[in-house]
Structure formats: structure tokens, C-alpha cells
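Supplementary Methods, section 5.1.

A reviewer requested that the exact input to the structure prediction be made available. We therefore reproduce it here, unchanged from the version used in the analyses.
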Amino acid sequence: MPSISAKWVAPSLALLLLTACSEPSQPAIPDAQSIHRDAITIDAHADIELPGQPSSYVGSDGLSKVSPAKMRSGGLDAVVMSIAVGPKPRTAEGYAEARQTAETELAAVQALVADTANNTILAKDPRALIDAHVQGQLAVILGMQNALILGSDPAYLDELYGAGVRVFALTHMGHNDYADSSRPLFNAATRSREPDAEHGGLSELGIAAIRRINALGGVVDIAQLSRQAALQTMDISTSPVIASHSNVQALTAVSRNLSDEEIDRIGATGGVIHVAPFRGYLFDSANPQLDQAIRNVRRTAGIDENYLYPFELYWEIQDPTVKATFLADVSELLKDVNLSSMLDHIDYITQRVGVEHVGIGTDFNHGSGIEGFIDASEALNVTTGLLDRGYSARDIAKIWGGNFLRVWQESVRQE
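The structure derived from this sequence is encoded cell-by-cell as follows.
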């Protein structure tokens, strides 16, 4: 395994960030608004909403949960907008469809940045993001999720990097030719799930992709990889990794969350786990009454009673009324999940591996949003909650963006 534990600190960037957010020399009552304003606040993962297309994931106003207006309202400086596709057939037609989806989403982000009314830049390196913060501009960082976009040849990574993509995750739901997913796909025709592992982690294509991402200077994202694939990725990567939107399995036992083994390895290799305000990844899975209630709702809807996370398989429900009822009923069961639940996961990671290894990655525009942090406009609430729990201004600056920037800078130095 490459030894990176002694080299992941980025002195120049760390000094800049900590100087900007340094503790006052005289005792003072910390102020959440000033701490939030001074920190470089970064959401490490949100999905891309296409203007004019119907979506059940946007805000009540019909707009993206990370729209420029909402980011400004909440004091959110930057967001990783991920070019992402769901599962598709691993055929020439499926790859072509995935590529077309990626190019459409890329064009949407390019149009957002090109609109001067948004006062938003596409940040291709850490310095550009820092400069945007100083100048009062918003920043978008491009991400990629699901190597189906690459087809059967990781060479397309170079083209994506050339277009500005800087954060790369190999899987979404379902295994692909590159890696095993933490969420094996359910086959509606056979009424069966994929095996837990197809490759035993990464395939040869996946290993080649990780090495190419390192060589380009991209950030490796292990979100949604299987446990074995995540651990193998950390063995191979020559720079620290992030988990862009992943919570704690010990608190919420769903397959998508990170095990203690993965959390410990991320901490040991200098990486960062970005916690998401997603009810299905934050509920109290140890509550037997809640578990039984979720199973009852799933049984009533006619889908598999066993679940990888509570909302899983809603797309399998054909009757729109039954589907709407299922989603409403599960949402009602998880209504007590709130910002405090999310902060519990941040606390767990901090106490286990340190505040240098935790961040925020919302997964907005893909089902995320909880009481207290429903969209980017409520980002200040996270700072207030962290402050109330005893985190210092320096801690909060690290959580909100300093840790991500440190990993990004270290990734760039691998070029």
C-alpha cells in the first residue's frame, strides 16, 4: 500500500485556511454567522438538475436545491455537481445512453456558469476556488459518478478531466465493469438481486481507472463502492480519497453507509468522509418497531420486504398511486430524522478518526433534505449546530471545506 499518511497535510493551503478562520486573541463569544462567512463552505456532492425537465427531487419552488440563489442565501460557497447516471445495460447502446446523459448534464453546468447573472465560476483547481471565495463568487466543481459513462475504456477519463471534471466515483446503484457497488441491483424480471460481489472489489478496468485518476490529478471518490472495492481503492490510490456523500453504518445499518473498517482506513490515509442529510441513511436502524413498520409498508407496496435502505425499489412499483403512497408512508416513518441526526454522524466520525476527516456532502437533488437542512439555503444551520456541540471555528472551517481542499490539493500534487 502506498504510504501517504505522512504527506497528506498541505502546509500552504492549511495555513491560508486556518489564518482566515483563526481563533481571536482575546476571549469572545463565537458567532455562527461570522464563522460561516469566513469559512470556505463546500458541498462535496449534489446531483445536476436539468432546467425545464420534471423532477421529484427539486425544492418546493421547482428549482435545484443548490441553485445559485439558495447557495447565496445559505452562505454556501461551492458545490460539487456530479455528472451521474443510474444503472443501464452494459451494452454498446447502454454505454451510448450513459454518455449522452453525461454530456447533457455537463452542458447544463456549463450554461449555468456562462450565465453572468449567477456570478459563478467553474473551479478547476483549489486556488481558483479560494480566489472565488475572496471575490464573493460562487464556485461549481464538476464530479462524475458511475463508470458506465466511460463505457469499456477508461480513456474517456482524460476527456472528462479536460472538460473540468475533478471528482471521480466509479459506481452508483448496481455493479459495473469497473467495480462492485454497495447497492447490488434488483432485477425486476427475475425478482432477484445481483450477487453481493461480481469482481471481489475492483476489476482490472477499475484499477486502471483509479491509477489514471491519480495521474490526472483528480480526486478519487469511494462513495457507493462496496466495502472491498473501497478498501482496495485506498490500497491503490497514491492520494487520499473522499467519500462524497456517505454516512456511518454503525449508527444507521444500511449498505450504502461506511463500516468502521472503512472509516478507520480513510482516517489513516488522510481522506475525508462527507456526511449527507439523507433520511434513509440517518434513521435509527436499531429500533425494532421502526424496522418492522418499514417492512410492513414495503410488503403492502408489493416490493421485497428486505431492504438495503428504506426507499429502495420504489421505482419497481408500477401503480403511481401505490408508489406515491409508499413514498409518503416511508417518509412519515422517518419524519423524526433531522439536523441533529446528521450531526450525530459527524460526531461519530470526529470521535473515531478526528475532525480532519469529516465534511459535508448533501446529495441534494437526489432525495436528500431533512428538517433543519432542506436545501442549500439552510447551510448556516449546520454551522450553528456544530457550534452548539462544541466545535471551534477552526473545526467548522475544516468540516465545511478545509478538509476537502486539503485532499484536492494533495491529489493535484500527484500529477
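The chain is about 40% helix and 10% strand. These observations are discussed further in the main text.
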